[in-house]
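Amino acid chain
________________
===
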Amino acid sequence: MVVVLSIGFVTLAAYSIVAPFIVFELKRKSVGEHYNGLIFVMYPIATAVASPQVPNIITHFGMNKAVSIGMCTMGATLIIFGLLAFI
């Protein structure tokens, strides 16, 4: 349980560190405030939609593999946020 809570804390901290820079980058690219808000609200919506499926995913893949897949997904999204300046 401590590992899962630690992973959640670290991923949310990573998004919190990246968030202020995304706002300025989107403004520089003339992205409207509506789309800026949609980008930030997608993570909580995806979490709420995926949460009921977590027991099925853990049963199918196993705990270690499910956590690894989740961490890789989170890392990929952070890399995409980091490459936003080049898109």
Remarks:
- The chain has a mean pLDDT of 83.
